[in-house]
Amino acid sequence: MKSITIKGSERESVGKAATRAARNAGMVPCVLYGGDQPVHFIAEDMAFKNLVYTPNVHTVVIDLEGGKQFNAILQDIQFHPVSDKILHIDFYQLHAEKEITMEVPVKVVGNSKGVMAGGVLRLNQRKLKVRALPANLPDFIEADITELEMGNKLYITKLSQDGYKLLQPDNTVIAQVRISRAAMKAAQEAAKAAKAPAKGKKK
């Protein structure tokens, strides 16, 4: 999985006044959990642009002043209810020998036979929960829809789980091809035409 580096500095004071001052200065208060003890730090608001405002997921290298570095993932984020400004972020430290659980986006590949015949593709799951060692976390889960005919569904059991485990039930539908209104109308009209008596033919 791709990684983003966040440069910051440890916080000496974590009280409300210090937190308010940090936000007023354009900094985001953060906490890193998962180690021997929590690490409180601040980083510039703009440093999180490519981590938060994207459909992709990344691991994070937290690079603090003094040479301290931690590998982590974003665990929780709080936004201002009106301005949507980032108020606080929690990270969780990664350890190479410990599996981690996180949501990974689904990437659709292939041209569905059902869609080419006039059907409509519906993506039921845009993200899937994955459990793996940090080194095996995928950037995305590939969902091949090539063989989906009209009315078919792609179940999670058809997806690769090479190096990681998908945590959803086996009956989870990833995508399906539904008949479009236009195709349905055409089928109905064709059925009516087939039942109608030919012109000029005596009953």
Automatic annotation (TrEMBL):
Q: Where is the Large ribosomal subunit protein bL25 L25 domain?
A: 6-91
Q: Extract the CDD domains matched here.
A: Ribosomal_L25_TL5_CTC
Q: Which residues form the Large ribosomal subunit protein bL25 beta domain?
A: 99-179
Instruction: Alphabetically list the UniProt keywords.
Output: Ribonucleoprotein, Ribosomal protein, RNA-binding, rRNA-binding
Q: Which GO terms describe its cellular component?
A: cytosolic large ribosomal subunit
Kindly state a single biological-process term from the GO annotations of this entry.
Answer: translation
> Which terms does the record give in the GO molecular function aspect?
5S rRNA binding; structural constituent of ribosome
Matching entries from InterPro entries are given as:
Rbsml_bL25/Gln-tRNA_synth_N, Ribosomal_bL25/Gln-tRNA_synth, Ribosomal_bL25_b-dom, Ribosomal_bL25_C, Ribosomal_bL25_long, Ribosomal_L25_dom, Ribosomal_uL5_bac-type
Q: Which NCBIfam families match?
A: bL25_bact_ctc, PRK05618.2-2
By its UniProt entry, which HAMAP family does this protein fall under? Ribosomal_bL25_CTC (MF_01334)
- Quaternary structure (record): Part of the 50S ribosomal subunit; part of the 5S rRNA/L5/L18/L25 subcomplex. Contacts the 5S rRNA. Binds to the 5S rRNA independently of L5 and L18.
Q: What does this protein do?
A: This is one of the proteins that binds to the 5S RNA in the ribosome where it forms part of the central protuberance.
Record family assignment: Belongs to the bacterial ribosomal protein bL25 family. CTC subfamily.
Full protein name: Large ribosomal subunit protein bL25
Query: Which species does this protein come from?
Result: Flavobacterium akiainvivens
